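Write out this protein's structure.
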Amino acid sequence: MITFQTPLTGYPDLEAKIAYGLARIGTEAIGLEKVVIKNCGGYYQVRIDIDDSDFQLLENTFDLLCRRLLSDEHIPSMTPGITGRSARRIKTTEKDAFPLKEYLGCEYAFSNKKTENVCKHSGSSLGNVMGFAASTAYYNKRNGIDIVSIPQDTRNRNSPKLLRRPTNPRNICKTCGLLSLLGSWYSTFMFSMVDKQVIGIPIPNREVSGDVLGQVFAYHHLFRKEWFGNPIPEKAIPLVILARIPSTAYFLKDFDLLVIVFSGGGNRGYHADAMSITPIKNYVDFIDASSFNIATIERLINTGSYELLRILNELVFYGRKELLGRFARIYVSQDNTKSSNYRTLLYVQTAYYFLREVAMINPEIIENPAIGSLSRTLRYFVMNKKYGYADDIRNARKESRDFEDTIAKMLREGRLRLEQNEKIHLPSENEIKEIFRLAYDRFEEVKTALTILAFSFPSGIEQN
């Protein structure tokens, strides 16, 4: 058994990419089943089930991968974070040799000399952008924020100054740079967003090997050609990634996702505008619950409804149930123009998910026939773009009589429309009494269930 260890640089993305690079070497040499990545908190161990006497096989495999993939500028120049000048420097030549023995152990240190590589490895160094830290640059800055002031217009030094996180604070050795490139190319999700580029790195929360590791290596290329014409909210990026490739939810449920948003590029250099590490279990649960949840996300992306996408992220990730009514109201009304007979409603499966998992409403209320009957009446007015009743119920308070008065007013109008031969369903007197009985004990749950179901398509039972 050979155990590699990443160099504890202090860059979370660099550590992960080096780990995936080492794992790729082991995979190419002896197969997926004999390679394990373990997150040790700040660094990674990569265990390869191979005899110590076969160590040279791993180095030969690394050399082969470098010559096959990294002997020209194509991959470096296509990788966000690497400038054109650095891409020319990082490519390998026939004279290069990159030993892996330095990864068999790690020198624990909490400061760096200015003259040494941040990875503490000897050999030639690279100054290109390979790692980014959320609030630090390296060990001796863990308690500080590394920020520089640069001109907004780089061609005019007198232009207003902007605060930016520097993306090139220290050098790393060329071996770490190449391993990071392999990890980037084989395991990260990259796509473009307006004039920015985004990279997502799966961060394992448990030991990863076999099929799961193989799926990480297989799925990364599906995002290469994605392009979004509007800026996606940074916190919603994991939701978008999972929605675009729903099958990733099956193997990413035990991962976090490290997301970095870049601006710039070319010879002028890159800047890390945003960085976050997000647990994605709540996203996976939402994606996995129903294909209609995926369709909801896709609709928001395709219509450029990025503010709604931000609110959806708040619902799914943080469970902010106070935003549920606002989300449903905007979702329903945003595209319902006067010239269109089409009504955009929530999918009922998505509505049920919100009511159960976000609002935490008892299924007895959600499935209560009286709730379904009154929400059906309320939906009639929503479909006719008369949102006042739904809004009044949504904003009603228990200590007032707004809830009861709104229902009474709606039923009066409903009876009038029924007399005018309109096709409108009206609840029975017993159903209204049941609504008021439930509201007396569970007011917030009842009014939320009524409005969300009214803003959703009817179930098959109602249609029949």
